[in-house]
C-alpha cells in the first residue's frame, strides 16, 4: 500500500481530519465529541495521511504552536502499516520547521514505552485527562529520531 502524507490547516481539511478522529477516538475509545474537537484545532498544524488508491483519509495528528503533539489517530484497518510513525515523523519535522526546541505529548499510560522508543522521556506525575490516566512525555527536537518522509503542502 502507498500513502500520501500532507501537512494541512484545519480550515481546508477539517472534514477529512474529523472522519479519522471520529472513528478512532469517538467510536473506538468513547471520547465525547465535545472533548475530542476543541478550539485548538484551528491553531494547530495537522498531518493527514491518505490511502493513494482509495483516496480515503486513514491517519492524522496535530501539533500546536506550544509544541504539544496530539490527536494521533490511525484507522484500525491501517494500523499494521505503522502510519503512526509517519504522522509522528511529520509532526516532528513541523516542529523543526517552527524552530521549536522541544515538543511534548500527553500519552496514555499504555503508550509510554512507544514514545520512549521515539526519544521522548516522562515529565512530572501521572494525571487525569478526559477521564484517562496520562503521562506527559517530552522530546528535544534536536534529539528526535525523524525518519525521512516527504510532505506535500
Automatic annotation (TrEMBL):
Matching Gene3D superfamilies = 3.40.630.30
Q: Where is the N-acetyltransferase domain?
A: 44-139
Keywords from UniProt, A to Z, are: Transferase
Say which domain of life the source belongs to.
Bacteria
Query: What positions belong to coiled-coil segments?
Result: none
Tell me the GO molecular function terms.
acyltransferase activity, transferring groups other than amino-acyl groups
- Provide the protein name: GNAT family N-acetyltransferase
Amino acid at each position: 500500500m502507498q500513502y500520501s502524507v500532507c501537512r494541512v490547516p484545519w480550515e481546508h481539511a477539517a472534514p477529512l481530519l474529523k472522519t479519522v478522529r471520529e472513528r478512532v477516538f469517538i467510536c473506538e475509545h468513547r471520547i465525547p465529541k465535545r472533548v475530542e474537537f476543541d478550539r485548538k484545532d484551528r491553531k494547530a498544524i495537522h498531518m493527514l495521511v491518505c490511502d493513494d488508491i482509495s483516496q480515503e483519509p486513514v491517519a492524522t495528528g496535530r501539533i500546536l504552536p506550544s509544541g504539544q503533539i496530539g490527536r494521533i489517530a490511525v484507522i484500525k484497518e491501517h494500523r499494521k502499516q505503522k502510519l503512526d510513525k509517519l504522522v509522528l515523523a511529520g509532526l516532528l519535522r513541523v516542529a523543526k520547521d517552527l524552530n521549536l526546541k522541544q515538543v511534548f505529548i500527553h500519552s496514555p499510560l499504555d503508550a509510554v514505552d512507544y514514545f520512549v522508543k521515539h526519544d521522548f522521556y516522562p515529565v512530572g506525575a501521572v494525571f487525569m485527562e478526559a477521564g484517562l490516566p496520562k503521562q506527559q512525555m517530552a522530546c528535544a527536537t534536536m534529539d528526535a529520531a525523524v525518519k525521512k518522509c516527504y510532505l506535500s503542502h
